[in-house]
Write a structure and sequence with these properties.
2 copies of one chain form a homodimer. Helix content of chain A is about 70%, strand content about 0%. Chain A contains 9 helices and no strands. The radius of gyration of chain A is 20 Å and the shape is globular. The N terminus of chain A is likely disordered. The structure holds a DNA duplex (30 and 30 nucleotides).
DNA sequence: CACATTATGTCAGCGACTGACATTCGGCAA
DNA sequence: TTGCCGAATGTCAGTCGCTGACATAATGTG
């Protein structure tokens, strides 16, 4: 309605249509997140979410495949950010260190560029707590996480110039890393002490530091 | 119908009622497994499963909370077996070795005692392959697995005489172990070479052997 | 042979999700 | 501006997973 069309734009403008679509999508994510936080995931109906944005239920399902997907959408940006950071790590770096640097960066380097929409870091942390309250949501989250591990394994294999079908180490490392991350998330959402991204990063660090010691020898000495 | 009641039984007999219940439960699991394998998980309806056992849909949901649960039931016995074996490991053993011994044993020591019903090892392996074909089934499986990891972490903590809230190593080890197990499952269900429990055990072994090397230093030399 | 318990069936209903079809709206050119 | 094409949305009907409420049948017990 506002915003001059700038007739022969640099072919870079998203166009009114695309912008409108993005707006409804963001509105759906935000409304869903708010409702989920307020009354719980399972007690919130898709009709409520759609109604809050004044859109038909059918339209909702054209934006998201299912209810889980809206809920987890607020984590999507953080995940993409993590992948970007991982790809940007220097090739000489040892794989586990690269993973660690990427995950820490993805939590701390907020708003670097696009901080648009409801994908704020706080929303992501709220979601991580919410995930533990709903079995179906937890299940959906775990599925996404394992898909991410596949991607991570591929990136590691490329970094090291390995064939993933030949050398199993990338897959093993990605799986172990993912497991430890989950443990850290769980620990964070259970404890009430550490809050905010810094607390999360601290917990992730403590868990990763224990990965080596947990594997070897006797624990007692 | 057969099996003499042995009137004043040693108070150990399950009773007709319990036996009948067990039979329908097993029948449901087996029918479901067969239908899932034949026409896929999502394309099989609960009514079909119930109909195959000549039971109402409502009764089905009195035995299983949802469709996922029947499908994953064929793995339940193996999981319980694993937990038992883990508890039986000597206390002096290093935790990772105990986990490894337990998981190998749970795949190889088949039919040791109750091998009744549809919970055969072959069915379990078929299920593991089926899991990768259905997103919702995979999600449900992952959720169960993480619950198992909680149990494993508790057992490890007890073994070592640690407070799980204090020392994070049990949780970290359980998570990493679980991740590597998943990687092995995926690898097994992807490759067509290794079949049967032996192949699975071999793959699990190869993955666990790489857990240490994947974490440390440079991979190239 | 009653009587309490428990498993099962029937029915109605909600909520997630989908296909089919009609309608409207943004983009683009005559 | 006008007119057209395709994309986005709404409406409707229907399937399937799942649940509560109530009635009925089977089983175990005195």
């Amino acid at each position: 309605m506002a915003a001059q069309p700038a007739s022969p734009a640099p072919a870079q403008e998203p166009g009114l249509r695309a912008r409108k679509k993005q707006r409804t999508r963001d509105a759906l994510i935000e409304a869903a997140h708010r409702l989920f936080l307020g009354q719980g995931f399972s007690r919130t109906t898709v009709d409520e979410i759609a109604g809050a944005v004044d859109v038909s239920q059918r339209t909702f399902f054209r934006y998201f495949a299912n209810k889980d997907e809206v809920a987890l959408a607020v984590l999507a940006e953080a995940e993409d950010h993590f992948i970007e950071l991982l790809r940007a790590r220097p090739a000489e770096e040892n794989p586990l260190r690269a993973l660690r640097a990427a995950i820490v960066g993805s939590w701390l380097e907020r708003g670097a560029g696009r901080d648009t929409g409801p994908s704020s870091v706080t929303a992501a942390l709220e979601l991580i707590q919410m995930i533990e309250t709903s079995p179906t949501l937890l299940a959906a989250h775990l599925r996404r996480v394992t898909e991410q591990e596949r991607v991570v394994a591929t990136i590691i294999a490329e970094r090291e110039g390995l064939d993933p079908a030949e050398d199993l180490r990338p897959a093993v490392l990605a799986a172990a890393f993912g497991g430890v991350l989950r443990a850290a998330h769980l620990s964070w959402s259970t404890d009430q002490e550490d809050t905010g991204p810094e607390g999360m990063v601290a917990l992730i660090g403590r868990h990763l530091d224990l990965l080596g010691p947990a594997l070897v020898g006797d624990w007692r000495p």
